[in-house]
Amino acid sequence: MKRLLSSLAFALALAGAAQAQTAQGLDGRWEGAIDRPNGSPLTGVFRIETKDGKTAGVFDSPDQGAKDIAATVERQGDDVTLGVPIAGMVYTAKISADGSTLTGAVAQGGGSVPLTMTKKAAASPPPSTPAVDGLDGEWAGTLTTPVGDMNVAMRLVTRNGRTTTVMDSLNENIMGIPALTSRNGQKVLIEAPGINGKFDAELSADGEKLAGMWDQVGQTFPLTLEKK
Predict the structure, then answer these.
(1) pTM for this structure?
(2) Residues sharing a CB contact under 8 Å with residue 157, sequence separation 6 or more, in sequence order
(3) 200 and 136 in one domain?
(4) Same domain, 162 and 106
(5) Do 211 and 177 share a structural domain?
(6) Which residue, of 110, 116, 139, 158, has the fewest CB within 10 Å?
């Protein structure tokens, strides 16, 4: 789905952590919502760790299933700069007096948007919906597009009255894109807001196939998923 993503350009470029001299007071997980002009906000996460006198950072885009993108970390007084060089993205911010909030703007491709990030103790739980009956398990199929075939999978798990859905783009090794599932009779809708995609399908009578259309950023393609 690389060419179909309606997202920030960094979503698919994965690399290891970048290292810098010690940047005091930034270790931890920093999370914030990045506004997009043509889509729902994306959750952005910087994870920063100092070890052996070196501060290393990585960037995650959990809504798009991307993580461990190399990031740079700098601090001068209250001024903080976090960069994702491979994507041409730079976040410049000021850290609050209590060290729990970064307030600034993220720039990429000649544009910028305000961004506030807060230090989190742990990752946010994945989104879920009220329990959806009869769909738990892994569903896999091939999406045929003008740029080539894409092997995709949907994984659904229901626990404690809630259904969690994630989507995998297997060709690109992008796993765990958060999605939301709803069902009305045999009609099933799976939406992945982070990549502006949705799958509008019908469940077969035997409950083993989902056949319908995948829609993403104005492009629509047939897709059939089979339960594995």
Answers:
(1) 0.66
(2) 136, 163, 164
(3) yes
(4) no
(5) yes
(6) 110
